[in-house]
Structures are given as structure tokens and as C-alpha cells.
Amino acid sequence: MFRNPLPLPVFALALACLTAPLTAQEERLSSALDDAHTRYGFPGATAAIALPDGSVVTAATGLADREAGRAMTPETPMLAASIGKSFVAVTVLALESEGRLSRDDLLSVHLGDRPWFDALPNARTITIDHLLHHTSGLPDHVHLPEFQRAWTGLAGGPNFDPEELIGFVTGREPLFEARQAWAYSDTGYVLLGLVIEDVTGQAWREAGRTRLLDPLDLGGTVPSDRRDLPGLAVGYVDPDNPFGLPARTADAQGRLLWNPSVESAGGGFASTSADLARWGQLLFAGDAMEEPYLDRLLDGVPVDPDAPGILYGAGVAIHADTPRGPVWGHGGWIPGHVSSLRHYADHGVTVAFQINTDVGIADDTSDLVPALEAALADLAISLIR
Fold it and tell me: How confident is the model at residue 14, as a pLDDT?
């Protein structure tokens, strides 16, 4: 027989909490997420909306592990991928506020003594600001065939040295002279992680944790620096993915088949949609740290001369003019996990969602992400009217 280990009043209260009905806002968000699940057939997803009053509405749908039948919950973490660039960039801005570095510093000031430094494209002209804004002219190692072929070896062991990633771009021609154009580069953010470590004497994730995650009480966000991340949703990829990964990216116990440290400071965190929404709300309200930083965060550069309304700031994408007003945020992709963070500045709401598959998303054959972003944006805005 099952024996209740709690006194009856405590047990009754716990049961009531577990079975409490959804609020009207939660029901609407859950319904929108369920509709997307039915239409697109992805394994599972979570979503969260942070409202101007500080409340966060959450929902989940589908499965975190198809084979085990484990349900997705709002507390299920996933790899946040490139949304982590916002944490890295704001850590750099915090160090600038502390007087530890300047965005105008040449990269050579901090890393010029590394044996590989002179072989970097644009080595002697790159600044910290260029790395923040993806205007360094560095290639992106993630999309180089050499890196994709080496993935299994790089991500197969328990330890990983991020300087190995730099080797994929050293000796190459720059894409352009520094600051003369824009090209997304995870490699540039790997270098920023090394700069943070050079300046602080701390691991770059630890420097971000002490300045951002802990003070802001973002307990659902943790470094993605090992395979056994507690509760992580299993990711699912196309069997023909360029990294040679199996369709299921975790073993039967939910342990990743590869070391996520290979992402380095190009991302570097696992999180929940609720934490990402809270982060976005604090970040874009100017409340992520005590020192003023919004002007530096949102000092954007054009991504494409033919699309003047699309800019990139310090670790954040800026859509200056949309039907819903200015939109700030970032997307994230890593094999098996896709995330979205978007703040609607005119309405003071932030929306985040995460999906545990990249099938049809990594190769842009599905409109799932933009469709879900639009649906959840309209829902979020309607909640404050």
C-alpha cells in the first residue's frame, strides 16, 4: 500500500497545487502551443510570456522524450544555443562598466600573445566591438565543412578546449575588412569568451553567472558544459544531418551523446522558456544590471544593406520596424533544439519558446518558427489589452 509521507493538511495543499486549474492566460497560451503541435507534429515544446506587471505565463505541449513517454513541462530545460550570445555580450558590457575593458579595445590587447593569433583573419584590426556586432570579417566555423566533419571527434570526449575552434578559421582570408560589412560568426563569440577569461581570470560562464544569472535569480539557466544536464529534453535531428548524429541525440537515460561544451561562448547555456522570457524582460527594460547599458546593447549595425530595418546590436537582433513595432531578441539553434526570444518594445512583453527538434528548421524547409513567433506575439499583446 502507498503510505502518504506528509501530514494530511500538507498533503492536501500539495495535491491542490498539483491539480490547480490553469488560469485563463495559461489556457490561451497552452491552446496556442497545442495548435502548433497538432499542425507541425514536433515532439514537444515549451513557451512563456513575460508581462509588464512582472508575471510570467507558461505552457508546455508534447513529449520531452518520445521513447520514454516523458511529458514536456514548463520546467523542462533545453539547449538555448545562440540566445546565450546575449549573456556573453552583456557580460562584456558589464566588464566595460567595471572599467576592465573597452569595446574599442583591439583584440590583440587581450589575446595577442596566443600562438595562433597572427593567423586570424584581420588579426590586427579586430576590436571587441567588431566581435560583439559580427563585423569582424571572421568566417563562422560552425558552417565550415571541416568543422562539421570533425564534430564527432571534437564533441566525443569529456573535455574540450575552445581554442580548438579557432583553428578552423586561422590561415583563411577574411570575409571583408573589419567593420566594412556584417557576417554572423560564432567564432567571434568564442573569442569573446576567451577575452572574458583573460580579463577576469574566471571561466567565461562563471563570470556571466556571478554578474547576471545569480543576481537576477535565473535559476533555470545553467551552463551546458556536460552531457548529463538534469531533466534536459531529448533532442531529435534529421538522420541526414551534416554532423553525423543519430536521430535521437541522447541515450536511454537522457544523457547527451555529445559534449555540448563544443558550442563554447557561441551559446553555452541550457534554460527554460520561462527563464528566457524573464531574462528578455529584464534585459530590454534596462534592469539586467545596475549600470546603464541599453544604449550600448541596442547600438545596432545593418545586417543587410537591402534590409535597413534589420540590425544587430551587442548580442541581440533588432527589427526596428515591424507591424508590431520594434522587436528585439535572438534565436537559437543547435542539433536537436531550437529556441526563440523576442521582446515587443512598444507593448512591454517578451515571448520565448523552445522546441526539441530541428527537423525542417535547420534547413529552412518549415515555417514553424516564424509562424509560432507570430501567433505567440499576437497572443502576448492581446493579454495586456
Answer: 36
